[in-house]
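Appendix B. One record, verbatim.
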Amino acid sequence: MDQQCSASHSTDPTQASLPVVPPYWQHRRFESYSSVGHLRPAPISLEDNTEHRSDRSSPLWARAVSIHDHVLVSGTIPSVGDYTVWNCQIEMLHGGSMIIRKRYSEFEDLRSKLATTFPNAGQALPPLPPKNAFHRFKPSFLEQRRVGLAYFLNCLLLNPEFAAAPILKDFIFD
């Protein structure tokens, strides 16, 4: 007989009384939170934000975004390398405002990063206004783009999930 199955056929008298246990029969008990008290995670704390909203507990920090104007920047060669810079005014939740200046390509980059970071955002991540290579400096096109970019930023800054994202904060503060 195999030595693992029966110890009675062993020639060593000290091993004759010990049964051999297959390795898959061995039961190992791992430590649990109840057996090791000092390894417990910190308790969950709840915070009531219904009466007093603190800045620390709220990811929302902006009240509104408006884009009042833009600047056309000319490239070194006439009509080559020209682009538009949008002056975006962000009104803070508790007063004050700030102005940031961004190109459309920076908005595209932000949206791409947010789509990667929040793959299940779906309709919560608004679209950007469309591009148009032929009419990109036409006043009516620039007005539609201005309205679309303001809507885009408002949707992001008024959504707690997006407003708290480091990607959006980098876009605003860098």
